[in-house]
Write a structure and sequence with these properties.
By secondary structure, the protein is α+β, with helices and mostly antiparallel strands. It has 7 helices and 13 strands. Helix content is 33%, strand content 28%. The strands form 2 sheets. Strands 5, 6, 7, 8, 9, 10, 11, 12 and 13 form a 9-stranded mixed sheet that branches. Strands 1-2-3-4 form a 4-stranded antiparallel sheet, with helices on both faces.
């Protein structure tokens, strides 16, 4: 396989014209690429800040077999790669002088690319300790016991509350979150639709976000319950409500990421109908 078998572009429409069917063939595995490209199509190339995004796809016998996207200045995010595909991609990017901070992908693909990048650039890599497991909703199962209360879509009057809980979620998972309230529009949370679980007296006790329907799929993210309210079934209730709403809105695939090292959340998602699909990890290049 030759490095120039990888076709690169900065044009999201050109990329989707080539790789769109491939990405839509597995919306669960390709959830990040689908939502990133949809955001760029909707808001333009500056949706993720200054600089141009980068896309690429690899075709064999006229059929796309692999692809990647990269936000400006961000990690490389390829689909599942064989070692040969990873090697050709690393050679292509290194040959063009690209500098990468790291790779985020399915765990075996990330490791294969990190090793190929080392061979072609000399850059060492370090896998992050934290991994995430992708889950896909099968048959929704209500939490048992089911907490009292109801789901309510968050509106404009809830914006400050949503931002506050998204900031708390980011802190829990050690993710950067801007201190400037005006920077909300540039965060990965801004395009989400949020739902609260409320107790019978109308008090919000848990929050779940979801992407818009893209290629028939929705990703649930984030899910947050304040620490003093955990263990009462609220997260399961709001996650189930969001999944059901996505299916009712026409989605045929609902996915979410969870920390496999957290037995509580892992067990919860399995109980309410989510099945594991693959594990993802990040390798930082040094």
């Amino acid at each position: 396989m030759r490095p120039d078998d990888w076709h690169l572009t900065e044009d999201v429409d050109a990329f989707l014209a080539r790789a769109g069917d491939f990405l839509r063939s597995r919306p669960d595995l390709h959830t990040m690429a689908l939502t990133v490209t949809e955001t760029l199509r909707a808001h333009g190339p500056g949706a993720y800040g200054a600089g141009a995004p980068l896309f690429g796809c690899l075709a064999e016998s006229g059929e796309v077999r692999a692809a990647f996207h990269r936000r400006p200045g961000g990690l490389l995010s390829p689909t599942v790669l064989t070692p040969e595909q990873a090697g050709a991609l690393a050679a292509r990017l290194a040959g063009l002088g690209h500098v990468l901070p790291g790779v985020s992908a399915e765990q075996h693909s990330a490791a294969a690319f990190a090793e190929a990048w080392r061979r072609h650039t000399g850059a060492a890599s370090a896998p992050r300790a934290q991994r995430v497991r992708l889950h896909r909703l099968g048959t929704p199962v209500p939490p048992d016991p089911h907490p009292e209360g109801r789901a309510r879509a968050a509106g404009e009057r809830d914006h400050a509350h949503v931002v506050r809980w998204c900031r708390a979620f980011a802190a829990d998972v050690r993710e950067d979150f801007p201190a400037d309230p005006g920077a909300w529009a540039g965060t990965r949370f801004a395009a989400k639709r949020f739902t609260f679980w409320e107790t019978p007296d109308g008090t919000p006790v848990s929050l779940a976000g979801a992407t818009p329907v893209v290629a028939g799929h929705v990703r649930v993210d984030p899910v947050h319950t304040p620490a003093p309210l955990r263990g009462r079934g609220y997260a399961g209730a709001v996650t189930t409500a969001v999944g059901r709403a996505a299916l009712a809105a026409g989605a045929h695939t609902v996915v979410l990421f969870a920390d496999p090292a957290n037995p509580t959340s892992t067990a919860l998602y399995r109980r309410i109908g989510y099945d594991p699909v693959a594990e993802f990890t990040v390798h930082d290049f040094t």
